[in-house]
What does this fold into?
Amino acid sequence: MRIQRRTTLSVTSLSDHLLIEVYNKAIELKLEPQFIDLLEKEINKRGLFST
It folds into this structure.
């Protein structure tokens, strides 16, 4: 019997670069709006969106 470990990844643990990549891919793939909102909140928190 093989036991699998689950790893939980938080958006807060992503590098800035990877966070932006994930966000852009989520938009491209039209993923769940709640997921995109979560990414946007973290991007805003880090001050990564340029206005």
Notes: The longest helix spans residues 33-46. The chain is about 55% helix and 0% strand. The radius of gyration is 13 Å. The helical segments are 16-28, 33-46.
